[in-house]
Amino acid sequence: MIEEQIEHALKIANNFRYERKYIVPKSMHLNELVAIVKDNSAHFREVFHERQVNNIYFDTNDFKYYFDNVDGVADRQKVRIRWYEDILGSIKNPKLEIKIKNGLVGDKWTYDLNSFTLDSSITGRDLGKLFHDSNLPRPIYEIVRSLNPTLINSYTRRYFISANQKFRITLDYEVFYRNIKTRMNNFSKMPQSDPFNVVELKYGLEDDGIANSISAQFPFRLSKNSKYVNGVNNFQSFPE
């Protein structure tokens, strides 16, 4: 089962990486934020091209993944469908991603999914059929088949890499959230905007010592920021 695979992966941390997140108020101009990244002594340069990232997140009936994050559980996971560019309509080349976290380090498993259409007629059953028809490995299918769609988010992402190519930074801005239900969705409602942009520094376990000197140059607040938690907080109310 997937729980056994996760336990095995946590013991073999070679593929894991550190992910340090920093939240930045949207009042800071984007050009100023980019300049701070590029002025770092690690000499970051922009690579690839900026693009819109979209996700549908999934959780258990009792929102276990959400509460594990809120409660600071060290070993936790996150399940989402990810794709790029337009958020609604015909979705090409979507990926199922399972993110495994152990404290500040994490790994990501990615699986191809069939194309699908995202509009107000979509239901949890439709997404369950998508998982069923996409030829997922059996242990992976067994866990996702019981999950519910809980959130849609989107943001624009820019990518940077250090001169020694050991450190990567992603800059996420224009972060928006939409509610999604297992049935009767209405995506015509205005999405909720996040008041922060997110800078994330990513690097291998062996480079943690050097990372301190890089991050010390950022005038940003280190945070356990989770877009999933932030988005769910916009649409769900839980008893105290």
Automatic annotation (TrEMBL):
Query: What SUPFAM superfamilies would the database entry show?
Result: CYTH-like phosphatases (SSF55154)
**In what residue span(s) does the VTC domain sit?**
16-233
Pfam families assigned = VTC
Q: Name one GO biological process term.
A: polyphosphate biosynthetic process
Taxonomy, superkingdom: Bacteria
Q: Which protein, by its recorded name, is this?
A: Polyphosphate polymerase domain-containing protein
User: Which species is listed as the source?
Assistant: Maribacter algarum (ex Zhang et al. 2020)
